[in-house]
Amino acid sequence: xxxxxxxxxxxxxxxxxxxxxGKNHFDRGDNTSQKCLSxxxxxxxxxxxxxxxxxxxxxxxxxxxxxxxxxxxxxIATGLSFSLSAITCKLAYxxxxxxxxxxxxxxxxxxxxxxxxxxxxSTKVNVFDVKKEYRMLxxxxxxxxxxxxxxxxxxxxxxxxxxxxxxxxxxxxxxxIAAFFILKEKLTKLNVIGAFGAxxxxxxxxxxxxxxxxxxxxxxxxxxxxxxxxxxQTSINILLRVLNKELHYxxxxxxxxxTTVIISISLLLCYPSVFNFEYYTYLDxxxxxxxxxFNYGVQVGKSLAFKYADASLxxxxxxxxVLYLFISDVFIFNCSFTVTDGFGGMIxxxxxxxxxxxxxxQKYSKS
Length: 367
Fold this sequence. Notes:
- The protein has one domain (about 85-365).
- By secondary structure, it is mainly α.
- The longest helix is centred in the N-terminal third of the chain and has 28 residues, at about 30-60.
- It is globular.
- The protein is built from 14 helices and no strands.
- About 75% of the residues lie in helices and about 0% in strands.
């Protein structure tokens, strides 16, 4: 809807100010004219806001009301995609001890751009049209992501999934706190209780899952790398919330995929010996590529989740990852199951469902 030009606007307001006999009430010397102009602007703004909201939804640039339930669903789906990515990567490590995290990074850098380009073409988004004020933030997000994710997948070779996930899942708590203080987002008591309750459940799940070879000289290195990933993920989640309020949701995944290509090419040129090409099998490569596809789902899912809902609300939902990975530990990687595990899983589930039910109640009670 185009804004009415100033001349037409003045004519219409002038007509509003005259009675049927042509007397101009704006000549009374009071502020009636200004009030009428303001009211006229407000009516136009409401109409324009509605029009912008419709256009924004169509283009994927949600700038009006947040859809919290949709953000919740995207984050739950993101957790499943992340878990599948970690599981397929771990399966490759289990069957081939010569593989390392950099081998995974290389394979992922092949599949991510393919997925990203396909989506960009299908959505017809100009990913090069990034607003100037967001370019530095987008670059920072890509660099941090390029550092953090390889750290996690390198660590998975040396420490159990459960331990790595316990450390990584400190980040939802940090994101919720950072969103409250930095982004000034609302943080309800139920959100806080849910986040801390879920983390306690995570601790119970990992309490008897030491696993791995603690005499392994790289065991402590694995823990350190996971802590780096935790810090990186916290920063990324905050940046995604800031970026995706304005940018199309495909922007971040696309430029992140380009960053992974640059990192992989740099490693190939400078340190080719860190890759174990001679030990690759078709199955190993297939598992890594499949893990990369799931990882792309994580990139897109997070972008959409943080576009539609507050980081303080959806970030703790990443604890669903723990439930998914716990199931994989028991049924795929033959980890033990105890009563404590069941109790921890129930605490996580209840802690996460309470804020979701609260959001559903708030949405439908208003309507």
